[in-house]
Amino acid sequence: MVKKYLFFIFLIFVFYNANAQNTKVEVELKNKKIVIGQQTEIILKADVSASETILFPILQDSVNKYIEIVETGQIDTTFTKGNQRFLLSQIIKVTSFDSGQYVIKPFVFLLNGKDSLKTKELLLNVQTIAVDTTEKSLKDIHSVYDTPLTFREFIAEYKYWILSVFLLLAGVILMVLYLKYWRKKPTEIEKIKPEKKIPPHILAIEKLEKLKTEKLWQNGKVKQYYTELTDILRWYIEVRFVISTGEQTSSEIIESCKQSKSIENERIIELSQIFTFADLAKFAKSEPLPDENDLAFAKTLNFVQQTKESVQISENVKTQNV
């Protein structure tokens, strides 16, 4: 039984080697002698069965130290013998810039992903350019020929200048249109009267009158009543005396007012009483008497009237929202 298996393996090996031997790889050098800088072609060929797979050598930018690859062509395929075999070929253009004789080592093909097939070695002879020593004087190089630009070359060469001129013309056209059609003439400009500045005491009094008509404390909203009352007072002090009240407590506001030379001491006492009523209602949860609520309102109104700016304002000035 063992002999049968060995014989079967031997047949597979012999059959595989027969196929491998039928695969041929070749290399050809089109010109064996070139001048420095001249190009020639290395032609790689492989004759393979249709059932085989072969991998051509993977080349970089040079064949060796002295021979450079200019271009690596595509692999061409030609079927032969009723599509049972195919002939593969690839052209590699090379050149050299050093004179001498250089050996091109065998190229290695990979058959079926495991067997290596090598080509023969090549010899490339790179010669220098012959110099005519009989000439007594050296000749000058030719001058540069100036050829006219094509339309496409002209656009590519001067594209930024063309774009700049186009943008400049577009800007001039837009400016003319604006001046001629779009800009309003002086006679068409609407005369806008400057808004008259309304003194803060008038706005504060209007806000107090509005608060009075809302009847907050009469409807049990005592805390909201004192909050809005002190907000009006804070706003008036900040606008009238330029004292920042937004982040200050009641005592800090009173202290700032004491430092102002524009507020009399009697008004400071009045201001302190107003904030005391408000703080008790908002924070101490006390229930002020109706007379105290009216008194806080009256003192606030009196504070505004006693500290107002001495400026004559028309009564029919339209107020603005603040």
Question: Which properties best describe this structure?
Answer:
single chain, 322 residues, alpha+beta, five-stranded antiparallel beta sheet, three-stranded mixed beta sheet, 8 helices, 41% helix, 19% strand
Could you characterize the architecture of this molecule?
- The chain is of the alpha+beta class and 322 residues long.
- The protein is built from eight helices and eleven strands.
- It has helices at residues 2-22, 151-157, 159-182, 200-214, 222-241, 250-259, 265-282, 290-306, and strands at 24-29, 33-35, 39-49, 54-55, 68-72, 76-80, 85-95, 100-104, 108-111, 115-118, 122-127.
- The strands form three sheets. Strands 1, 3, 5, 6 and 7 form a five-stranded antiparallel beta sheet that branches. The chain has a three-stranded mixed beta sheet with strand order 2-11-8, with no helix packed on it.
- Strand 6 and strand 7 (85-95) form a beta hairpin.
- Helix 6 (250-259) runs antiparallel to helix 7.
- The longest helix has 24 residues, at 159-182.
- The N and C termini lie far apart (110 Å).
